[in-house]
Amino acid sequence: MVYKFKANRVWRAYIGGRHIDGFYGKKSPIDCSMPEEWLASTVEAFNPDEPEKKENEGLSICEDGRLFRDVLSENPEKILGKKLNEKNGGKQSILVKLLDSAERLVIQCHPTVSFAKKYFGSPFGKTECWYMLDCDDDACIYLGFKPGITKEKWIELFKNQDVDGMLECLNKFNVKKGDFWFVSGGIPHAIGKGCFMIELQEPSDLMVIPERITPSGTVLSDKKLHCGLGFEKMFDCFEYDGLSAEETKNKYYRKVESSDNRFIPIVDKTLTDKFSMKTLKVNGNAEVDLGEKYAVVIVTDGNGNIKTYDYCSDLKKSDNFFVTAGSGNLSFSGNMTLVFCMPESNR
Questions:
Q1: Does 26 have pLDDT greater than 60?
Q2: SS3 state of residue 200
Q3: Nearest to 12 by CA among 112, 96, 104, 93
Q4: How is 152-194 classified by DSSP, letter by letter?
Q5: Is the separation of the CB atoms in 181 and 129 below 8 Å?
Q6: Quick one: pLDDT at residue 258?
Q7: DSSP code string of 106-132
Q8: Which of 16, 140, 209, 308 is deepest in the core (most CB within 10 A)?
Q9: For 91-126, how does the pLDDT look when each residue is reduced to its tens digit (9 = 90+)?
Q10: Average pLDDT over residues 169-181
């Protein structure tokens, strides 16, 4: 079965979103404080600093007006598949976003699963990955500590709010359209200005932040900074085993391959057991069977058609949808590129 959703833009403390507007074909794209679109989401956004907090922010709404979270809770085994439903207690184990940065995001760090279980009572951490759909010429990311950065030094930089000093502690990489980067839980990072991406991650909004003010001047609350941990404990979330830039790139960067009518992995179990991502470039006709996996699918370019045993629809760039587990053969026709975001292996 296939589910489609209403628009689901989410407030964040940084500015962006113009490329998302353009991706969806809006005539006058703008940057604003809604720089993310959450797709097929069952996760609520943690926005303690939002001026006007919205009910159920982050949760996707199906075309018929129901929250997808509620639809899932009614029949999780049918939607997620028997094995993944049992493994994850009826919860969807991924969150997919479109993210567009018109400014550098604050430095942040997300918990590993073990840290999230111990200190947040969450079965999920926030390991994530970024697939770049478009980038400004000077776009960059910051990823991972350089060698020799200690917890004590990091805390001192935080106390002094030496942001330049913090950024100097991290490896910096220029990025371009088509790049893919993986970000383990515990690894400090910051997305630079001018990055438009698909972000696939574990389903949580947990993070700690050592910057008190965003580059555009938004002051963040203590609660947003330490996420309820307190300032002493938040620094235990960071992994301090630094790597050189070359080591970091070898570990976290992947080249995205492309071949007509082939289902090609970008993320698989050789990189992580948290989720998987594949791409399909349709040139004429192509078929995919997801087996007992579900998927969030995004059409990143072109147009065409999808047919399943119980569904048929035209597709165009920016269309996105959720395919339930056990949906059988998915038949695609046309000329288009699709990205499939899926859970971990169920074998």
A1: yes
A2: strand
A3: 104
A4: HHHHHHHHHT-HHHHHHTEEEEE--TT-EEEE-TT--EEEPTT
A5: yes
A6: 87
A7: PPBB---HHHHHHHT--S----EEEEE
A8: 16
A9: 999 999 999 999 999 999 999 999 999 999 999 999
A10: 98
